Fold each of these.
Amino acid sequence: MTMFNALLKKLMNRGNDDSKNVAKKRLKFALVYDKLEIKEEMLEDLQKDLIEVISRYFEIDRDQVMLDIERSEESSALIMNTPILAARHKKPAHKSSRM
Amino acid sequence: MDGKIVVVTSGKGGVGKTTVAASVAAALALQGKRVAVVDMDIGLRNLDVIMGLENRIVFNIVDVVQGRCKLKQAMIKDRRINNLYLIPASQSDEKNVIKPENMQWLCKRLRKEFDFTILDCPAGIEQGFKNAIEAADEAIVVCMPEISSVRDADRVIGLLYSRSIEPKLIVNRIIPKMVERGDMLSHQDVVDVLSIDLIGLVETDEAVVVSSNTGLPIVMQKDSKAGKAFTEIAMRMNGHPDLPVEDPMAPKSFWKKIGSKIGRKNKVQS
C-alpha cells in the first residue's frame, strides 16, 4: 500500500482498526458467549421438560427431538426441532399426560 | 467500633491485587484509620514481602482460626505506619483448611477492632475466593486494560453481585501512550464493558517495582503517580466518594497536539 493510500484509509476509517477496538469487540463477544454457556445436564433437563409439555398437545417421536443453542455474532437462539406424529384433540388434564 | 471488611479481588492472577491491597491499606492508615490487611492466599503468601514485613512472621491466619494462637499474636504491626497491621497467610497449608464460617468468626472480631479490614484475595474463583468474599461488606475488583483480565473481572463481578456485593473497579497498569495510540483498551472501554463504578485509575509506574523490591510502601513515595492514585483511592473509600478520578493521559508534545488538532493520528504507518 502506498503512503497516500494508507493516509487516505486512516482518514476514512479513523481508529476503527485500532487493535484496542479489535480487543473490545472480541471481549464483548466473549462475555456474551460465556454467559450463554450452560451445563449439558441442564440442556437435558430442559429437553425432558419440553417433551413433557409438548406431549400434552401433540404426539411426538421422543427420540427425534433435537434441542440446541445456536450462537452467532449478533444473536443466540434456542433451537428445538421435533417431528409431530399427531395432534391430541382432547386436551388432557394437567399433569396427567404421561403415556 | 463497627469497621468495614473490603475484599480486593480480580479473578485473574498477576494484575496487581496484592499491590492494591497493601497500598490502599497503607494509605488508609496514613489517613488516620485503624487498618488490618489479611493475606487470604493460603499456600502462596506474598503480601508480607510486598509490605516488607516478611521477617517478622510468627503466627498466621490458619493458626488463628485453628486456635493455635490468639488473634493479637498473628497481627504484625507495621513500624513505619501507625495503626497498620498485617495478618499473614500460612505457607504450608492448603486453601481449604479455612472454611467460610471461620471467616465469619474472624471478620466479626476484626470489625470490632479496625475501621478497615482489607482482604487480599487469591487468584481464581475457588475456595480461597469464596472464603475471601464470605464476610466482605465491600469489594474492589482490580483489572488491567487487557482482554483476559477484563473477562475474568466480569466473571468475578457476577459472583459478587450474586452475594449482593456491589464492587468498585480499579483499572491498573494503564499505559497512556498505548491508549492514545489506540493499542490499549482505555478505562472508558473497560467501564463500558463491565458497567460498574470506577474507584481509581492507576498507570504503569516503575516505582511500584522499586517499592516491591525494597518493601517500602508506594504511597510513602511522594513523587510516584501510582502512589498518588492509591492515596486517592483510599480517600474515596474513606469519606470522599466524590473525589474526581483523574484520567491518566500521555504527555503531549507540541507537534502531536497540532497533529491531533487536524485529525491525524500519531501512529506508525503500516
Amino acid sequence: MDLTRIFRLRLSALGLTLMVVAHPATAEDHDFKLSRVSHQLISAEADNVHLGQLLRWLGAHAGIDVETTAAADRHLRYSGTLTGTVGELLQQLLENENYVVMFSPADHHGARGKRKVARILVMGPAGDGRGARGAKRPENAPARDAALFEEDRPGTGGAGPKVGDLLPASTEVSTAVQTTKDPAPPGNAPGSIKAAGDGPERLLPSGTALSSMLVDPAHAHITRTVQLGGEVPLATHVITKTTDGRTLQRTALGEWVPWDRDEATLIDNRFTPSGGTLTFKVDDESLMDRFFPISYTVAYRTETGLKFGVFSVMPRQPAPR
Amino acid sequence: MGPLRSYRWIVLALIILLGAPSCLPEGKSAGSTSGSSGGSGSGGGPYFLAVADTEKIIAQAVQESQARGKASTIAVVDRVGNVLGVFRMTGADTTVTITSGRGVTSGLEGVGVPDTLAAIAKAVTGAYLSSAGNAFTSRTANQIIQEHFNPKETFAPSGPLFGVQFSSLPCSDLSVSFASGMPQAFIGPKRSPLGLSADPGGQPLYVDDDLVGGIGVISDGIYGLDLDISDVDTDDDELIAIAGTFGFEAPIDIRANHITVEGKSLRFADGSTTDLISNPALAPSFASLTGGVVGDVVAVTGYNDGPIVVGKEFGEADSGIRADISGAFGSLNAFILVDGANVPRFPPIAGTEGTGDDLTQAEVITILTEALSVAFRARAQIRRPLGSHAQVTVSVVDTNGEVLGIVRTPDAPIFGTDVSLQKARTAAFFSNTVAAADLNSVGAPISDYVTDVQAFVGPTALADGIAFSDRAGGNLARPFYTDGIDGNPHGPFSRTFADWSPFSTGLQLDLVVGNLVEHLLFVAGAPDDTGKCTGLPIVNMGTMASRLANGIQIFPGSVPIYRNGTLIGGIGVSGDGIDQDDMISFLGLHNAGVALGTGVGNAPPGIRADTLAPQGTLLRYVNCPFSPFLDTNEQNVCAGK
C-alpha cells in the first residue's frame, strides 16, 4: 500500500488554504532555491521537487503557515526554473493538473473591483485526451485559465497580478483524488480515515465544521483529536442525533442518553488532554443499523464558555468493481 | 436602473474521472437479480422495475443509439431515485459540458461533468417530477425554469418552477446517499448529482399506469437545455430515451402535453416512438450488449455498485416512503419518510430554540394535519384526471432550520420532498433578523447579495424581521424585476440577465456551488462526500448544521410561522401548482392557528413582505388559486387572513 501524506497549507495572512500531496518517504528530499528578481517577481529553481513542496513554498512566500496532514500521492514532481509573480508561478505549476477554479470577477459596485480567486481544487493528472464530442478536457485548461490570475479592475490595463489581492479566503488546492481510491487507506484511528486534512483542528465558540470521516460501519472506532491552543478543558462533551429527530449525548461510560439541548445538562465525558491536543472517543460500536451520514458534535468547556465542532461520518464504500 | 452585477462567480472546471468507473466482467449483471412476483407484466402489482425490465429498457435505448450512430450513456432509476443501472456505450464521452447556450460564462456554465452523473440527473428528473397523475420529462422541466414562461415569450413571468433545478442536491440533509451494503442502500428519496435536469432526454417509466422510475440519456456531450420551445427538435438524447421507454410508456392522458398551466400546454417530448429509427420490440438481449464491445454497465461512486439491481416498490417501507401508521394525522391518508429500519424520519417534534415560544409537538402535528387537509380538498393544477386533489409534501421547520415534521399525500411527486423543505427553510431564514448576518459571515460573493438587497429593498433588509414568503423572496431572485418585464434590472438575488442562465442563477446557486464541485470531486475519487450545503454558520451544538442545510428555493409555496408576532418557523409545500402550494402552506397554517388558539399563525399583515415596494413595485406574499376546492365553490380563500 502506498502510504502517503497530504500537506495542508494555510495562508494565514490571506486566509488562503492550499492542500497538496506528497509522498512521505520523499517529501523532504527536495532541492530548490528561491530568489527575488524584483519587487513582484520571484524565481524558483527546483530539482525533482514535489509539487506540493513547491506550492507550500509559494504559500510561505506569501506568508503561509503550513500544517501537514495524511493522505496519498504518487506522481507530482517538478524540475526546472520558475520565474514570475506568485500568481504566475501557481498557474504554471497547475497548468498540467486537472483542477477547478472558482472566482469572483469584477464587482460592478466597485467596492472591490478585482477578481478574487475563491477556490482552486487540483484533482491530479490530466486524462487521456479529448472526448469524441470535444468535451472539455484538462489539457485545454491553460488558455482559458490564463485569466485566472489577471486583475480585472477597470483602468489597470491588465497589469501584473497581485496575488495578495487575487487569492482571498478559502482557496484550496488538493491533489488527493487519485490515491484516495485505495480501498484501504491509512487512518488516524482503526476503521476510520479523515477525509481531508488530518492536522488537529480547533474548536470555536461559534462552532466549526470539521472534516468528515469515512468509517468501516461494522467496526467503527471513531475518535477525534483537536488542538487546544493552550486551553485547559474543564469538561468534554459528545453529541449526536438520531433519524427520528432525538438529540443524544455520550456519557463518560460511552452510553448514549437523551439531551434536552440545555448546555447546563451536558455530561462531562472526562477526556484528558495530551500534548496540547484533546482526543474524543466518539463512537465505538457497529454502525450497521445506523442511518448515514451520522453527525456528531464534539465540545469542551473553558472558563469562557463552550467551544465545539461538528463532523459527519459516512460508511467507507468498497472499491468499484 | 438598479445596481448591475456583471457576474458574481465564474466556475472554470476541468473535471475528469481519475480512473473511470470500472466496468464489470461480461455478463455479471445480466440476470443476477430478478424481480420477484413484480416487475413489468405482473398485472395488478406490485409495481417496480425488475432487473430484466431495466435490462430491456437499456437494450432498447442502446439499439436506438446505434441506429443513430451515437455512443450514449444511459441511466435507469426507480421512483425514489435508486440508480438501478448505468450503461456506457463504447466511445461515449466520459465528460460532458454544462452549457445553456446563452453565452454565459459564470455559475456552472462550462463545467465539465461525468457523463454518468448527467445521465443519472436526467433519469431522476423524469422520475421525480412525475406521479400517477402527471408524467413530466426533463423537457417539461426545461419549459418551466426559464426567465419567461413560455421561454422566449417576452414580458411573460418566469417559469413556475424557476429554480427547481437546484433541488435534491447531493448535499441535501433530506436526500439519502447510496451506501453499499447498508440498510439504507436503497432507501429514498435519493439525491441527484446535479439537481434536476432541463436537458431533454429524461423520461419517466411506467408499468400498468404506475410510475416506477425514469430513464436518462446523454449522447451529445452537452448537458444543456432548450432555449426555444417554439420549434420541434430532433434531439438524439430524447429519442434514445423514448426508445428505452417502449413498453414502459407514460399513460397518454397524464402526459405533460395534456396538462395546462396558466393556459399554456406543457411539453412532454419533441418526438415519439414513431420517430425512432430502430424498432424497440426487436432490441437485442441485454447480455449480448455487455462485455465492452457495445458497452457495459458501470459503477458510479456514491450512486451504485455497477450490477443492475431491482427497483423498489414505491410506497413500501424499503422504498423509504410508506403510509403513516402512527395515527398522528387522524384519518388522513398520510405518507411519511422512513429509514432502512423502517423508523420514521422527520416525525413531528417540538421546536428547538428553547425560547419559550417554540412550536410544540402538538402544534406541529396540527399544522401538518391542517395543511394536508387543505391539500386533499384542493383542486389540482398539474394532475389528471381533472377533478383530482392536489398531491404534495409538507415540511415544517423551526427558526434554526431544524426539521420539525414532514408528511405527504400518497402520490406526491418525489421532487417536492426536498423542495418543500427548501421552501420552509427559505421562508424561515429570510424572515429571520439574523439572515443578513448569517449571509455576511460567509463573505464574498454571498455577502454582496446582502449589500445588494439592502440597496434594493432597504438598509435593514434581512435584518428587520419582515416576513418573507418564498414568493416574495423569489420576486427578488429573478433576472428581471418586476418578474418577466424585459429590459428591467435584475433582482438583487439574481445575476444580471446577460449573466444569468438556469445554470447561473445568483444567490441560490452561489450558496451551494462549492458543494456541487466537492461532489464532483467525490465522484472522481476524493473521499469527502459529507460537506455542508452552504457555508453558513452552524446554528448551535444541537442543530449541527446551518439554517439552510439543503440550499434555498426561489419559487412559491412557503410562509414563515409566527406566534403572536414572533417568528417561530416556516412551512413549505411542494408538488402541485405554485398557487396551490402557496394556498396549502398559507391556509393550512391559518387553519391550524384557528384550531390551536395558541397564537400560532401567519405573519401579522403589517410585517409581510407585500408591504414593501422596492423600486416602486410591490412584492407578493402569496397567491391563492381561483375556485381552489373540489368540495365547495369558495373563492378568495386566502383574502383577509
